[in-house]
Amino acid sequence: MSSLDTLPAPDPTRGYRTLREHNEYLEDGDADCLVIDEAQIYPTIQVKNGDIIKPTVTNEKVDNIFITRDETLRKRFVRCLRVNGLIPSLEMIRDYDNYVNIENSRLIRFNQIIAGFILHLWQLLLNFYVFIYPFALHSNEELGQEFSKSMDWKKGLIRTFEWHPEGLKCAVCHINDCIYIYSANTSLIALLKHINQSKVMAMSWSPTREEILVVCCQSAIIIWTVDSNSQQLRPKSESIRIINKGFKSPLTDLSFDPSGQFLVACSPQSSMLYIIDIDKLSIDKTIRRFGVCFTRLFWSPDGNRLMTSTTGHYICVFETKNWSSAKWSENFSDICQTACWSRPNGRILLFTSRDNPTVFAIPFYDSPQPNDVGGTRKCLEVLDLSERQFPNGVKVGGNIHQMIWDKNSERLAISFKDNNEYIALYKTVIRSNLEVTPIGFIHGVSTEIPLVLTFHNTFRSGSLLTICWNSGVVSYIPLQFDSKANKSMYTKGTPRPLTSFCVTSPNVSIQSHGTSFRGTPFRMSTTFNSPVNHLNPNDSVLSPKRPLLFTQLANNSLHDTSYNSLQ
């Protein structure tokens, strides 16, 4: 059974965007709410397609405007070798069919046989290389679309979005690779633009230097110094530093660790992790793992572990003392799509693969030691998010695109690749076990698709989910709840951590309130009631013979929701 079965059916004729959550109830409205946190107003961000100057893209070449004259095979080979390289030159000889006379034709046929034999050996070597490095022949645009955090990196108006870890300041990268800095303290919007700033994949603020923003482009790493007190809309040339040597491009991800000690970058066409020294503008250290390349980086909140998704069918987790690693390959039939750590201690790692709509977890009970990453050796199932169609015709779920956890691991948001209009929102409770409770679906107005999801970790009134929509709108959705009331459904006792690490609790009543912030009702969605279900006897949480992470729930009603009643 899909875990989406217990969520309320979304409205297929939605004309409103989700505005907020209030104590596990989602509210829709016809206008975005103004978010204020301790007298600071969040900036209004809307990217308009007509305001963006896009670079001209054409497939025309300069050679197309010239008329090709007759040349001998030798001259054509030399010219093609200079312009295109050896392999296209050999292909030109193999396909050459302009025989001038019988003497030359014999020599040409002999050269064609030699060229064909060399090309055959080259193809065999290339097939072996692609078997080890599956993304070696992909173009930069294909790699950007595949490994970017954005749902539509190539055509979406917003490519990436990054909150500053210590303040109300954010960086927004547009489709034309221009970066704008928004802040609550000023109405000025700084513009970061450079000729080497093309095909931006990721951005990362320095946790220890408020003014440092590092931009990961496919062929360069750009370090901006953004002075928040400056009145200039364009930073001076002294505020930019560039690293374009020492790594294999294209880069697809870059991130500071929470302490600001390490800055790590990776490429899906390189088997090395690059640790960067921004003061020396050089690669300080490289970590190599033969036979696999790295695509995405996920730091644990304490900075002691770094999880990396790879081009192989497994994930790697590094400890940052000796940079030793361990890999998990169970339940993987494809590459890892996304992951997130529990906060603030990084005790649980959630992840999912590209072709599997299931969320798995790895518990890490102890701190890592030198040459010992820690963690259980099995990947344990948490959520099944298989596609589900509601009676009203709305389809939700499927393969996952992005998954993020808030600052205290109380809200989990998941976006999907297949049915990408809806974002599933869950309440999570971590004590000796992990408990997941469905809340509902977050959505935009009709035809809007979420491109990028992120939480603002300094928001004090609950959690603040930030969504970049494909319409260019950046919306803030306050998730307001009482953390003290965010308790487990088990009121008497606690499930044993060794026999049941994760239990899903059905929500007794899930509904969307039809109340706008102006106090007038505008829409009432259907109330969806789900009875409290008891556990299947075949999947007992108390049986030490069957350790389960996710406990399947039966359809029988149970009035007593205490832990003792589950026995």
What's the layout of helices and strands?
Blueprint: E1 17-22, E2 26-29, E3 36-37, E4 40-41, E5 45-46, H1 73-83, H2 86-94, H3 102-132, H4 140-147, E6 158-163, E7 169-174, E8 179-183, E9 190-192, E10 200-205, E11 212-217, E12 221-225, E13 240-243, E14 253-256, E15 263-266, E16 272-277, E17 282-288, E18 294-299, E19 305-310, E20 315-319, E21 325-328, E22 336-341, E23 348-353, E24 358-363, E25 380-384, E26 388-389, E27 395-396, E28 400-405, E29 411-416, E30 422-430, E31 434-443, E32 450-455, E33 463-469, E34 473-480, E35 500-504, E36 509-510, E37 512-513, E38 528-529, E39 533-535, E40 548-551, E41 553-557
Parallel strand pairs: 1-34, 2-37, 31-35, 35-40
Antiparallel strand pairs: 1-2, 3-4, 5-34, 6-7, 7-8, 8-9, 10-11, 11-12, 12-13, 14-15, 15-16, 16-17, 18-19, 19-20, 20-21, 22-23, 23-24, 24-25, 26-27, 28-29, 29-30, 30-31, 32-33, 33-34, 36-38, 39-41
Helix pairs in contact: 1-2, 2-3
Question: Can you describe what's shown?
Answer:
It is a single chain. This protein has a domain at 68-132. 10% of the residues lie in helices and 35% in strands. It has 4 helices and 41 strands. The strands form 11 sheets. Strands 1, 2, 5, 32, 33, 34 and 37 form a 7-stranded mixed beta sheet that branches. Strands 28-29-30-31-35-40 form a 6-stranded mixed beta sheet, with no helix packed on it. A hairpin with a 4-residue loop joins strand 7 (169-174) and strand 8 (179-183). The chain is globular and about 90 Å long. The chain starts with 16 loop residues before the first strand and ends in a 10-residue tail after the last strand.
